[in-house]
Structures are given as C-alpha cells and as structure tokens.
C-alpha cells in the first residue's frame, strides 16, 4: 500500500511540475512587460524595477526562483489591483466557492441516494422510471442552462428567491441546487445499479430467510455494501463541481474563485489566470489522488492492478 | 377417455430420433452478437427516439439555414429584437409564434417590417436572424462531437492498443505519459491554448486533440490486456498468424463494443465542454455563434426577449439528452453484463 501511495504521489508531483513549467514558459513567451506605465519610465527606473522583481536574471535562474516561490505557495501579484497578491484573491474567493460546493455535494448526495435506493427497491415501477428520467435529464442538461432557467422562473417571474448576489442563506439555495443536479443524477443512477446487483445476491436472500426484517436487510446489507463503489465516482464528481461552480458563480454573481477567474481571463490578468489555473490543477490532482488512495484502501484488488498493469 | 383413444391412431406417432449428433443439432438459426445487440437496441424506445432526434438535428442544421435569405452575420438594426413569427402557426395564440412579444406589442408592425417577412426564431439585438444563428451554432456543436469521437477512435484506440499489445517497456513508457496527461485538467489545457492562440474553434479543437483520447486509450488498453492472453489468441498465434492479423481479426472485434460505447459517451461531454467555454466567453468568438454563446447572450435579455435564450437552450438540451440516451441504449445492448 505504501509503495502504491508513494508512486502516486510522485506521479502527482510530476504532473504539477509539468503544469507549472508550461505555465512559466508561456508567461515568458507573452509579449510586453508587466509594468503598466513603462513608456514614461527612464532606463534606470526600468532597470531598477526589473531588478526588484528579478527579471534581469537569466531565464533558468528565474525559473528556479519561480519554482521555489511556488513550492512555498506564493503565486505572485495580480495586475488588476495594485499590490494585491493572487494568494489573497484566491483566499477571498474560496469562502463562497467552497460553501456552495459543499452544500451542493451534501444535498446532491443525500437526494441522489434516496432516488437511487427508491428506484432500486421499486424496480420497474413508475417510481423507478421517474427517477431514471430525472437522472438522464440531470446528466444531460448543462448546468448553465438549468441555472439560467431556474434564475428566470424562480427568481424573476415568481420572485420566491433572490435573483443573484451573496448576502445570506437564502442566496445559497438556487446556486447550490443548480450545482447539485448533476450530483443527484450521477449518484442516483450509480446507486440504483449497485443496489439492483446486490439485491439479487444470495446473502440478501439468506438474510431475509433467517428472518431479518425488510428494513434491516435494506439498510444493513444492501445500502451499506452499495455505498463502497460510490467512492470511485467521487473524483470525477468533485472535478465536475469545481468546473460547474465556475459558470454558476458567474450566473448568480457570487464573488467566488470561478467568477474572479473568468474576470481575469476577460481582462488578461496573466498572473491571476496562471495562479488560479495552478490552484485548480492542484485541487483536482489532489482530489484524484485522495480518491484513488481511498479506493485502494477499501478495495485491495485495485492496488494489485495498479502495481502490476 | 374413449374419444381420445379413438382419435390417437398409431400413424400419428413415430419413434424419437436418438443419438448424440441429433440432440446437438440447433434448430433455430443462430444470431451473431451484433445482430443480437441491434435487436436489443431496436427494442429500446428511448434510444430509438433519440437516434431519430439526432438525425433530424443533423439534417436540420445543414438544411435549415437555407430557408432564410440572411447569413449568420447580416445585421440590420431596423429589425432588431423581433420575436418569433412563423407563417401558418401565427394564428394559434398559445404557441407564441405570432410576432407579438411578452409585453403584448407587435414589433413587426412598429418597426415597419414587410408583411411577408417572417423570422422563425426572431432576431437578436443586432437584427440578425436567430434561426440561422441557432442552426449554424448547432453545426459547431456537431463538429465538436464528430471531432471528439474521431480523436477518441483514432488516437485513443491506437495508443491504448499499441501500449497493451507490445507491453513491457513500451507499455511502461506510454502509461507514464498518460498518467501525467490524465492529471492535467481539461480546463487548464484550453486556457493555455487561449493564451497562446486566441479563444476560438482552433483552441478548442487542439485542447480536445490533446486530452480527449485518454479515457478511451485506458479502456482499450485494459480490454486488449485482458484478451491478449486468452486461448483463442494464443491458438491463432501458434498457427502462425502475424501481429496484423491478431489485431484486426481477434483483438479489435472483441474490443469494438467497448470502443463504441465509450465513443458515444465522449460526444455529449465534448459538446458540453465547447458550449461551457462559449458560455463563459472563452469559446467561439463573435460574429460566429455556437449554442453556448447564443444561450449566454440570450440570458442577458431573458426578461424582455426570452426567445433569444430559449430556442438555443432547447436545441442544446435535445442534443445532449439524445446523445446520452443513445449512449445508454448502446451500453445496454452491447455490454453483456447489463443483459437481464
């Protein structure tokens, strides 16, 4: 197990290093200088500024310095606001982003589990079909289309909930719900398949035969065992939530990382784009790693396969 | 009892044929795996409807723009923001295609648009025909779908196949590369391309080419690894079959089902990826339009001109749901484990 984890951590670090390297050299390739009013500067001033930011050093030295700073988590300064660091922008945006992400994940998982279990228990009834139709729609309809329509009908036409912004708990409902639709659909489908498979096994029949109540068989034997493979879809789902939040934050004008990111791209704030990109990559790579390790712990067969093939 | 005895004469009977050869004979014509799968797919009502919906959308996206005399970027501010109006259907009030907007006014009359002028999906803020823009945007989604599937099949299958078939060092080396590429999020790749090139169809195409095939290569590799050591391949090898024959006659046909299913599921993912980028402004740039950018523009004026967002959103949803349903149908038809 330890060997597997070390191997995966090395692969992860290599991926991050490659992303960081590509990022760095792209920044070097871009035309122009980072100083806005450079035309008014004298040669000496330019030299002093370049010296201050280490831009007079040869590129390999700059690269080493950049990696060193990156290892300490320093992402540099943003162009948009004078003197603000990318780190502080990301930390500021993290609160709202993480909040709706976690809310969507919890709500989506709970509702998805209920849908999936109900569909499996009432297999081939209209509850099953209904839940699966909802699931197909939830997977197929893009989150931005759903969020936009929700905003229009619930926020503008019915005026039940605030249309946008981030001023209190009632502002969380629509964004978190639109984000959770995909989670609900994925978990419901997955849970249904797993439950159906397990409900057909002999040990369920055995448990029923020895006189265990229907409820206890469902909860203790079927649901518990079907929960294990759910770990496998957590990774892709977390990535989906992160990219999904990017659009949802823009639609509902939530001051999260996604909103800042899109704004940074629109105004060509390169350090911010790069910083956020690296942050996103880091997040995604770490999530994939954690999920893989978790799954390795739960299901030993994966470790063997991972080590051999 | 008496009656039946009379009716059952000895000439109605003949001795049962015995012997092992006779009992092994199969009376019904055997059907191949593919015939079986096709039959199952035909029975899946959702998948068949979805298939027709997709054929309809593909045909429409190429034919429909011809019905309008305007191009994708023919601007005319005199006819901006017209609601949809369709000849024949305009008499039926509840369809909402009578050229009257949600405030109850008729901009066709107010703006002196000629009486015989119909904009089936209305016009946008610059007076461009939304009908043409929606279907041209659909073409882009379909191009992305085709591209993603092609890359998946060409690069993914080749890469995974070579990696698994030759094994050993080749496999090790190729898998290390995949591991690194797999860790790089799609979004990061596209942003890098946007910074070097510019937002647009080229950046999206390149991003899909670089990352799109990885999932498929892993699936094909796993399948080939599993098949490679099975007896029928060994038998063929022993009989002196060259590698080319092993691959084309034994390994590929047995992997085909997994390839088809995986490719169909790549398509909605790629369509979503493009429209998502266009929606946040990183994808297709004006004056060309894609469904994502049309929906994004439409949402800005959703309160006054709902038709601008609703039609592209509807086409987008039908397209996504159809591809997902076909994917589900194919998986159920081709995956023996899913058989009930």
From TrEMBL, chain A:
Gene3D superfamilies: MetI-like. Coiled coil: none annotated. The chain crosses the membrane at residues 9-27, 98-121, 133-153, 173-191, 227-248, 278-298. It is a multi-pass membrane protein. CDD domains: TM_PBP2. It is found in: Cell membrane. The keyword Manganese does not apply. Its main location: membrane. Keywords: Cell membrane, Membrane, Transmembrane, Transmembrane helix, Transport. This is Oligopeptide transport system permease protein. The lineage of its organism: Bacteria, Bacillati, Bacillota, Bacilli, Bacillales.
Automatic annotation (TrEMBL), chain B:
It is found in: Cell membrane. Signal peptide: none annotated. Keywords: Cell membrane, Membrane, Peptide transport, Protein transport, Transmembrane, Transmembrane helix, Transport. The chain crosses the membrane at residues 47-68, 140-165, 177-195, 201-220, 255-284, 304-330. Residues 138-327 form the ABC transmembrane type-1 domain. Residues 1-25 are annotated as: Disordered. InterPro entries: BP-dependent_transpt_permease, MetI-like, MetI-like_sf, OppC_N. Coiled coil: none annotated. The keyword Transmembrane helix applies. It holds the Pfam family BPD_transp_1. It is a multi-pass membrane protein. CDD domains: TM_PBP2. PROSITE patterns: ABC_TM1. Belongs to the binding-protein-dependent transport system permease family. OppBC subfamily. This is Oligopeptide transport system permease protein.
């Amino acid at each position: 197990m330890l060997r597997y984890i070390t191997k995966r951590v090395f692969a992860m670090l290599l991926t991050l290093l490659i992303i960081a390297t590509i990022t760095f050299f792209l920044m070097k390739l871009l035309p122009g200088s980072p100083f806005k009013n450079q035309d008014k500067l004298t040669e000496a001033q330019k030299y002093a500024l370049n010296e201050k930011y280490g831009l007079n050093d040869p590129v390999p030295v700059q690269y080493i310095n950049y990696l060193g700073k990156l290892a300490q988590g320093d992402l540099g300064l943003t162009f948009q606001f004078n003197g603000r660091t990318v780190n502080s922008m990301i930390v500021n945006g993290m609160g709202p982003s993480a909040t709706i992400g976690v809310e969507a994940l919890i709500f989506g998982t709970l509702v998805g589990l209920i849908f999936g279990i109900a569909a499996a228990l009432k297999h081939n009834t209209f509850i099953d079909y209904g839940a699966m139709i909802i699931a197909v729609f939830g997977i197929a309809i893009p989150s931005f289309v759903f969020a936009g329509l929700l905003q229009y009908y619930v926020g503008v036409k019915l005026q039940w909930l605030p249309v946008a912004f981030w001023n209190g708990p009632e502002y969380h409902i629509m964004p978190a719900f639109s984000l959770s639709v995909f989670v609900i659909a994925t978990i419901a489908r997955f849970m249904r398949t797993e439950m159906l498979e397990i409900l057909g096994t002999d040990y369920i029949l055995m448990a029923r035969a020895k006189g265990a109540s229907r409820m206890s068989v469902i909860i203790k034997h079927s649901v518990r065992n079907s929960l294990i493979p759910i770990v496998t879809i957590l990774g892709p789902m977390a990535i989906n939530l992160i990219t999904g939040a990017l659009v949802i934050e823009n639609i509902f004008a939530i001051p999260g990382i996604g909103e800042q990111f899109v704004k940074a791209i629109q105004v060509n704030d390169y350090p911010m784009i790069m910083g956020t990109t690296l942050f996103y990559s880091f997040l995604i790579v770490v999530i994939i790693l954690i999920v893989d390790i978790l799954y390795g712990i739960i299901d030993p067969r994966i470790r063997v396969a991972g080590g051999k093939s | 009892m008496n009656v039946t005895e009379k009716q059952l004469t000895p000439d109605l009977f003949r001795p049962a044929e015995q012997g092992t050869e006779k009992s092994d004979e199969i009376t019904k014509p055997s059907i191949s795996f593919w015939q079986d799968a096709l039959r199952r797919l035909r029975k899946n009502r959702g998948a068949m409807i979805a298939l027709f919906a997709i054929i309809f959308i593909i045909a429409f996206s190429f034919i429909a723009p011809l019905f309008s005399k305007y191009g994708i970027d023919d601007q005319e501010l005199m006819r901006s923001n017209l609601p949809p109006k369709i000849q024949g259907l305009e008499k039926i009030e509840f369809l909402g295609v009578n050229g009257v907007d949600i405030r109850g006014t008729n901009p066709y009359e107010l703006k002196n648009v000629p009486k015989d002028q119909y904009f089936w999906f209305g016009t946008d803020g610059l007076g461009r025909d939304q009908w043409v823009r929606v279907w041209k945007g659909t073409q882009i989604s379909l191009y992305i779908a085709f591209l993603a599937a092609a890359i998946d099949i060409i690069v993914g299958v080749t890469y995974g196949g070579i990696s698994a078939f030759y094994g050993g060092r080749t496999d090790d080396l190729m898998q290390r590369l995949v591991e690194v590429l797999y860790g790089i999020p799609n979004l990061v790749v596209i942003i890098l391309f946007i910074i070097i090139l510019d937002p647009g169809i080229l950046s999206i195409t390149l991003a899909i080419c670089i990352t799109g095939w990885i999932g498929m290569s892993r699936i094909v590799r796993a399948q080939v690894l599993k098949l490679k050591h099975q007896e029928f391949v060994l038998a063929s090898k022993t009989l002196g079959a060259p590698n080319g024959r092993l691959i084309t006659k034994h390994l590929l046909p047995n992997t085909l089902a997994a390839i088809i299913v995986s490719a169909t599921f790549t398509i909605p993912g790629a369509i979503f990826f493009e429209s998502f980028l266009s929606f946040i402004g990183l994808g297709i740039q004006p004056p060309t339009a894609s469904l994502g950018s049309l929906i994004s523009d439409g949402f800005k004026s959703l309160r006054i001109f709902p038709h601008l967002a609703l039609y592209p959103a509807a086409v987008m949803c039908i397209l996504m749901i159809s591809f997902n349903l076909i994917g589900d149908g194919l998986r159920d038809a081709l995956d023996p484990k899913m058989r009930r």
